[in-house]
TrEMBL record:
SUPFAM superfamilies the UniProt entry points to: Multidrug resistance efflux transporter EmrE
Name the UniProt record assigns to this protein: EamA domain-containing protein
Annotated keywords: Membrane, Transmembrane, Transmembrane helix
Keyword Transmembrane helix annotated: yes
Spans traversing the lipid bilayer: 6-22, 34-54, 66-88, 100-121, 127-145, 157-176, 203-221, 263-285, 297-318, 325-342
InterPro entries per record: EmrE-like
Keyword Ribosomal protein: no
Domain of life from the UniProt record: Bacteria
Gene3D superfamilies reported in the protein's UniProt record: 1.10.3730.20
Amino acid sequence: MKTLYYILLFVAALIFSTQFLVTRQYQRRNGTGFLSSVKLSLGAYFTIALFFFIKGCITYKSFNFGFSTFTFLMTLLIAAVSLSCVYMGIRVLAVGDMSIYSVFMMLGSLILPTFVGLVFYHESFGWIKGIAIALMLAAIVFSVTSSGKKVFTPKALICYIGIFIMNGMIGVLFTVHQNHPAQTVAAIANADGSFSVNNDAFMTWYGLSTVLLCGVLYAAVKIYDRLRRAKAGPAVPAPTETPSAEAGAACAASARKISAKEVCLIILLPVLYGLCNGLGDYFIALATQPGALGSSVTFPIINGGTILFSTIWGMILYKEKLRPGTIAALVLVIVSTVLFMFA
């Protein structure tokens, strides 16, 4: 059975690496601003909620397949932390170094959930797992710090430490929910009278919670922007030449052409992002539930696999060349992953 969980984690890593490609395409068309990211999250997590709601209804043959106040509050907290990570990612572009930021982001998602799993949920720890974790940590550092000037200003350090904690907390919250007494979470009753975590319900509430927060956040930003504009007064337009009727018609036709060409991608990219993120998180939820692999194996493999597949995508799609640091990282990822499977 554990072999299946390993396969799911590798699939999740592949999905997450694909998600980064989708994000890059979305940002090329819609920019990298905060509102653009919120709109992407809004569409993506609505897709997640709808997909897992339909999946749960089909699986359990019911529209009432699980609710728990604890599950809802946990998913709301995960959503808030996830959106904070989005803000940090945009903020670091102005004050810090993206490669160092990526190191802290991945280290947080590896170290904190692993620590919680080992200390609070008594997951097994031997010398093989210890070596595997150390190699994976080294792989993360090698993969993103092999070139470029690094920025360590006070504002940048705040972003680095912030993303370390917040991105790590996402994995911690997943772990806490999946290992909480099943009677207190959105659960299903088994034939022997025991309960199991209902992962479809968990993912549905996760999607809805994020949509709720994104909607509130988007509305708040738009209202604030409108009030700020009203207080500043109407802008004085710059003098321009009056375009001819022919030029105006040409511009309108061009705008219609661009709009028609891009509209499918504008709709498709958030949906695709949501499916990638949702399925990846769902496989993590399966791997961290009681009796599965645990956090101390799940999150290192996810991080290492994402590095591996992202590098492969970069070579295939963007003709990126392998630097010595990247080669070292890939070797460490492969060795570490093999060790985890025998830990």
